[in-house]
């Protein structure tokens, strides 16, 4: 398993970054929040995991080991694959996810697109005893949203399986209420809205 990559960021795409390691450029798929913390030309270190499928090898990257471990833990639940696990990490902060699982907070879990009541109940039953709840920490200040963030979040939603028009409408609705929304909040709120409309 490739457990981490470290090197200069060559490219930052809508759902991935390319990190050079030993002369090779690795495409690493990440949440929009992780991508927002990377800068082209600067060195990055990402915790990673390699998902092997018959037709593909896909490398997923995370800001820290904590997110990676949750990503892997989520996939132990029947019906949860890499895409839904990544969407879960994108919508819910690790501590929020753990607390929702620990407390059986189905409403919070159903904010994840593609997770209904039965799926949320299955997540709670299978993972409640496997998560350790930690005290909440103050949120980190982030940059204000810009038109670039809007396009990036829309593309991230497309990468998660939503279609163009609903994705744009969801993002625009969030920006109409909160023009200064940071990328993380923008994505989470849009995902929550799209999840309810399904």
UniProtKB/TrEMBL annotation:
<dbReference type="GO" id="GO:0009378">
    <property type="term" value="F:four-way junction helicase activity"/>
</dbReference>
<feature type="region of interest" description="Domain III">
    <location>
        <begin position="146"/>
        <end position="198"/>
    </location>
</feature>
<keyword id="KW-0547">Nucleotide-binding</keyword>
<feature type="domain" description="Helix-hairpin-helix DNA-binding motif class 1">
    <location>
        <begin position="107"/>
        <end position="126"/>
    </location>
</feature>
<dbReference type="GO" id="GO:0000400">
    <property type="term" value="F:four-way junction DNA binding"/>
</dbReference>
<dbReference type="Pfam" id="PF07499">
    <property type="entry name" value="RuvA_C"/>
</dbReference>
<dbReference type="Pfam" id="PF14520">
    <property type="entry name" value="HHH_5"/>
</dbReference>
<dbReference type="GO" id="GO:0048476">
    <property type="term" value="C:Holliday junction resolvase complex"/>
</dbReference>
<comment type="function">
    <text>The RuvA-RuvB-RuvC complex processes Holliday junction (HJ) DNA during genetic recombination and DNA repair, while the RuvA-RuvB complex plays an important role in the rescue of blocked DNA replication forks via replication fork reversal (RFR). RuvA specifically binds to HJ cruciform DNA, conferring on it an open structure. The RuvB hexamer acts as an ATP-dependent pump, pulling dsDNA into and through the RuvAB complex. HJ branch migration allows RuvC to scan DNA until it finds its consensus sequence, where it cleaves and resolves the cruciform DNA.</text>
</comment>
<protein>
    <recommendedName>
        <fullName>Holliday junction branch migration complex subunit RuvA</fullName>
    </recommendedName>
</protein>
<dbReference type="InterPro" id="IPR010994">
    <property type="entry name" value="RuvA_2-like"/>
</dbReference>
<keyword id="KW-0347">Helicase</keyword>
<dbReference type="InterPro" id="IPR003583">
    <property type="entry name" value="Hlx-hairpin-Hlx_DNA-bd_motif"/>
</dbReference>
<dbReference type="InterPro" id="IPR036267">
    <property type="entry name" value="RuvA_C_sf"/>
</dbReference>
<keyword id="KW-0378">Hydrolase</keyword>
<comment type="similarity">
    <text>Belongs to the RuvA family.</text>
</comment>
<feature type="domain" description="Helix-hairpin-helix DNA-binding motif class 1">
    <location>
        <begin position="72"/>
        <end position="91"/>
    </location>
</feature>
<dbReference type="InterPro" id="IPR013849">
    <property type="entry name" value="DNA_helicase_Holl-junc_RuvA_I"/>
</dbReference>
<keyword id="KW-0238">DNA-binding</keyword>
<dbReference type="InterPro" id="IPR012340">
    <property type="entry name" value="NA-bd_OB-fold"/>
</dbReference>
<comment type="subunit">
    <text>Homotetramer. Forms an RuvA(8)-RuvB(12)-Holliday junction (HJ) complex. HJ DNA is sandwiched between 2 RuvA tetramers; dsDNA enters through RuvA and exits via RuvB. An RuvB hexamer assembles on each DNA strand where it exits the tetramer. Each RuvB hexamer is contacted by two RuvA subunits (via domain III) on 2 adjacent RuvB subunits; this complex drives branch migration. In the full resolvosome a probable DNA-RuvA(4)-RuvB(12)-RuvC(2) complex forms which resolves the HJ.</text>
</comment>
<dbReference type="InterPro" id="IPR000085">
    <property type="entry name" value="RuvA"/>
</dbReference>
<keyword id="KW-0227">DNA damage</keyword>
<keyword id="KW-0234">DNA repair</keyword>
<keyword id="KW-0963">Cytoplasm</keyword>
<dbReference type="GO" id="GO:0006310">
    <property type="term" value="P:DNA recombination"/>
</dbReference>
<dbReference type="GO" id="GO:0006281">
    <property type="term" value="P:DNA repair"/>
</dbReference>
<dbReference type="InterPro" id="IPR011114">
    <property type="entry name" value="RuvA_C"/>
</dbReference>
<dbReference type="Pfam" id="PF01330">
    <property type="entry name" value="RuvA_N"/>
</dbReference>
<dbReference type="GO" id="GO:0005737">
    <property type="term" value="C:cytoplasm"/>
</dbReference>
<keyword id="KW-0067">ATP-binding</keyword>
<keyword id="KW-0233">DNA recombination</keyword>
<dbReference type="GO" id="GO:0009379">
    <property type="term" value="C:Holliday junction helicase complex"/>
</dbReference>
<dbReference type="GO" id="GO:0005524">
    <property type="term" value="F:ATP binding"/>
</dbReference>
